[in-house]
Specification:
Rossmann fold; alpha/beta; 3 domains; 7 strands; about 350 residues; 7-stranded mixed sheet; 15 helices; DNA polymerase, domain 1; globular; about 10% strand
């Protein structure tokens, strides 16, 4: 098979919209924090050539292997790292990869994660009740299902899965223990709350809750967003694609907060927070897939894309000009640039 042809069947969601939102340009530097099969990363590399560079991050080592094959023809323009995006800043420091022109988070699961890969993300295939993004993580979904109390199970299924029948689900799970496979758990949930209603399988919300708990998805997302803003250069773009209301709420609230100067509580007569806007909302409305994309890829139907741009306050303009002079003089063909990084740290410290 040609290295120019992707091997993964995963279809990247909102692909053209993502590349446009990132404002990808030739020679730019970009980070894909959720690499998956490399679909978005490949499009970014295509648009940013010649001279573009991409840092791809994924907690799943299998994703790194698949993406490496899919991106093979660009092998001199990317670096792939098996790491959780909660450690985004540490990865960028390690590889001297900042500031950057754009950062992407696509918070959905890849097709190879869902299609019977043995990790137990989907109730459509029988697999061990695992759900870990990385095999290095200690806690599995089976640990949670078989050890938490009924009260705690109900609370977390309600909190992270927004399941109205969480108490019924938790009660049936506790009675059925031990539960160690996806199909077994799905059957227990079906007995608890009945068969499929509409398009949503009765196990969907509980599986979502367990996956979020195992991987600490919501906590990690908040931490990673803060790190991402600090890694963006002037006018750099941050793009986030979310798929359920909990993560989209975190993204929306964070971006809106960082796009405001004052975040004091309502009713405070004079600003006392001293907060300064770091971002500008590029689009006021969220971007959603077209009807044609949804027909082609049903998994895209719940996707929500938000995009912001890094801004610099008036007092930082002089530092920005100096930063741009340093970047222009940098050797774009190398990954390790100690002199450049040292000089940029001095500029940022003075900002």
């Amino acid at each position: 098979m040609s290295p120019d042809k992707p091997i993964s069947s995963h279809v990247p969601v909102l692909l053209e919209e993502t590349v446009e939102a990132l404002a990808v340009q030739p020679g730019g530097r970009y980070i894909d924090c959720t690499l998956g099969g490399g679909g978005h990363a490949r499009a970014i590399l295509e648009r940013s050539s010649l001279g573009g560079q991409l840092l791809g991050i994924d907690a799943n080592p299998d994703a790194i292997k698949i993406a490496k094959t899919n991106l093979g023809s660009y092998r001199d323009s990317y670096r792939l790292v098996n790491e959780n995006f909660v450690n985004l800043q540490a990865v960028c420091i390690k590889y001297d990869f900042s500031p950057v022109h754009g950062i992407l988070f696509d918070l959905g699961l890849s097709s190879f994660q869902l299609n019977g890969n043995g990790r137990g993300f989907s109730f459509q295939y029988d697999a061990p009740l695992d759900m870990r993004f990385s095999p290095d993580q200690e806690v599995t979904a089976a640990n949670i299902v078989n050890t938490l109390s009924e009260v705690d199970l109900a609370r977390y299924i309600r909190m992270y899965g927004e399941e109205n029948y969480s108490h019924l689900v938790a009660r049936h799970i506790v009675k059925e223990r031990p539960i160690n496979s996806t199909l077994h758990l799905a059957q227990v949930i079906e007995r608890a709350i009945g068969q499929r209603r509409g398009k949503i399988h009765p196990a969907t919300r509980t599986f979502q809750a367990l996956r979020i708990m195992v991987n600490r998805e919501l906590e990690n997302l908040g931490v990673a967003l803060r790190q991402a803003v600090n890694l963006l250069g002037f006018e750099g773009r941050l793009v986030v694609i979310s798929y359920h209301s909990l993560e989209d709420r975190i993204v929306k609230q964070f971006l809106q907060q960082e796009a405001r100067d004052c975040i004091c509580p309502p009713g405070v007569p004079v600003c006392i927070c001293g907060h300064k806007a770091q971002l500008r909302l590029v689009y006021k409305k969220v971007i959603v897939p077209s009807p044609a994309e949804i027909r082609h890829n049903q998994r895209s139907r719940s996707a929500r894309l938000r995009v912001v741009e890094r801004i610099i306050a008036q007092e930082d303009y002089d530092n920005r000009a100096e930063m741009e002079r340093v970047l222009i003089g940098a050797n774009a063909g190398t990954w390790r640039r100690p002199f450049l990084v040292k000089k940029l740290k001095v500029i940022f410290a003075a900002a």
